Amino acid sequence: MIRYILRRILYAIPIAFGVSVVCFSLVYIAPGDPLQTVMPPDATAETIAIVKHAYGFDKPLPIQFLIWLGNVVTGDFGVSISTRRPVILEVTDALANTSLLALFAVPLSFSIGFAMGAAAGCFPGRWIDRIVTGAAVVGVSLPNYWLGIVLVIFFSVQYMLLPATGMGPNGSTEFHILQWSDARFLVLPVITLAMIPIGILARTTRAAVAEVRNQDFVQTLRAKGLSEWAVTRHVLKNALPQVMAVMGLQFGYLLGGSILVETVFTWPGSGFLLSKAIINRDVPVLQGTILTLSLIFVATNLIVDLLQSLIDPRIRRG
Amino acid sequence: MALGNHLILRRPRSGRLEGPAALIQRSIAMLALAASVMLAGIAAQAGGGTLTVGMTAGDLPATTGNPDQGFEGYRFVGYNLYDSLVLWDLSKSDKATDIKPGLATRWQVDKANPKRWIFELRKGVKWHDGCDFTADDVVWNLGYSADQKSPQFNPAQFAQSRSYLGNFAGVTKIDDHIVAFDTKVPDSLFPYEISYVLMISPCRAKEVKYNWANYAQHPSGTGPYRFDRIVPHQRLELVPNPAYWDKTRIPKQDRLVLIPMPEASTRTAALLAGQVNWIEAPSPDAVDRLKAAGMRIVTNPYPHNWTYQLNFVKGPFTDKRVRQAANYALNRSDMKELLNGLMLEGYSTVPPSTPYYGHPLLYKYDPDKATALLKEGGCLPCKVTFAISTSGSGQMQPLPMNELVKSQMEAVGFQVTLDTMDWNALLDVTRAGVDKYPDINAINVSRQTQDPFNALIRHVWTKQWAPKGSNWGHYSNPDVDRLVEQIYGEFDPAKRVALLTNLNEKINEDALLIFVAHDLNPRAMSPKVHGFVQAQSWFQDLTPVSVEP
Question: By C-alpha distance, which of B341, B338, B335, B280 is closest to B307?
Answer without folding.
Answer: B335
